[in-house]
Amino acid sequence: MRALVLAIDRDDDFGRKAGVKGPVVGRDACIDAALKLSLADPEDSDANVLYAAIKLRDQLKESGDFEDVEVALITGHEDVGVKSDVELLKQLNAVLHEFEADGVIPVTDGAEDEQVFPIITSRIPIISTHRVVVKQSESIETTYYIIYRYLREILGDPEVAKVVLGIPGLIAIMYGVARLISIQYPQSVGIISSAVGGTILLVIGAYFFNKGFNLSPMLKGAWAGVKDAFSKRLVSVVSTVIGIFVILSGALQVHFNLAYYIRNSSTISLPGVPTNPLLQLVLYVYFLNPMLVTGLGVIILGRMLQAYIRKDYHIWHHVTELLLLPAIWGSVDITTTYILNLASPALIEFYRKLLIVIGDIVFASLVGMYMREKVRGWGKIETRKGTPRA
Q: Are 50 and 30 in contact (CB under 8 A)?
């Protein structure tokens, strides 16, 4: 088995400091390269790595465990990363072309150079590894590399950066603003401090609560739905908001009026105001009926206009709903007046309203069927518009 003892200089100290261009193959050439770097920079540990590789080569050669053993040096680039790793791969291919090894023993001086092990294994198996421990330097380099990698991960990952840098940054900004305000208003220091502290706890708590229950997808979906509603169904959204306000205003007005009448029923002569809570609820619905129907009419009218603008085939649904509003009003009116004993099947007014309701239902159904046939082509137009051409 032919073994290659490989010294690795990922940041190209040999090239930058000693002018040694990689790859360097052979014992004598490697001794010459190590000597040049030692003279150029005696404190550089990469020279010791190459000396250690030469020594290991001599030991393996002497032991006779391998058919042949050779030592080589590959150098990367000062721009550590993709550029240096590509250069290392090119030089490794050149070394293997010159010395056809069956396995490699990398020799390094720290964690950074060991990052290229996957590159080596992509070309040749690693038999063993050898780390050179230069006194008082290994722990320093390893610690430096861990801190460097951690900081790079923080700055490169937006999610991690938000927690590690974003939240402390927000706290620092808020406390800085609070300190500036307290200079101008020293009497409000306690209030400002409490407000800032409460806001910070609220922000941090909301962030952790969101992460704990994974609310981000739901919030993003809700926000996307709101944006979609405003961009594609603006008329419908506006009419819905107006209709809801109409219904709420009517409900509040009826509530306050009934509460006033019931509260002053002993001093105001108001015949027909019931004392039973259930009948009071029926009376509330009776008075709310006009505003309820009006609000529903505004909502349906907006949807119908939106459907007409978009040439939506389902416009006939909204036309039918709009025409059914008198029937809804009449049904609620008949039901509530009958419960309150204000109407009776014996009265002609009762049958007149009932006929109006039935007639409106029949009329709305006929108009709906007619509209459905008239606008059936709108769906075909939209289908043709959405079909891509071949």
A: yes
Lookup: tokens for 96: 């293997």
- What ranges do the domains of the chain cover? 2-151, 157-214, 226-385
The torsion angles phi and psi of 26, rounded to 5 degrees, stand at 110, 150
pLDDT of residue 379: 56
The sign of the torsion formed by the CA atoms of 372, 377, 382, 384 equals: positive
Q: Which helix or strand (DSSP H or E) is residue 368 part of? A: helix 348-374
The residue to which tokens 């990689």 are assigned: 22
**pLDDT at residue 71 greater than cutoff 90:** yes
Positive/negative CA dihedral, 331, 336, 339, 341 = negative
What strand order describes the sheet that includes 130-131? 24-25, 68-75, 2-9, 103-108, 130-131
**Residue of 8, 217, 262 lying closest to 111 (CA atoms):** 8
Task: Tally the C-alpha atoms within 13 A of residue 174's C-alpha that lie toward its C-beta.
Answer: 18
Query: Taking 50 as the threshold, does the pLDDT of residue 149 lie above it?
Result: yes
Confidence of residue 95 (pLDDT cuts 50, 70, 90): very high
- Judge whether residue 187 has pLDDT over 80: no
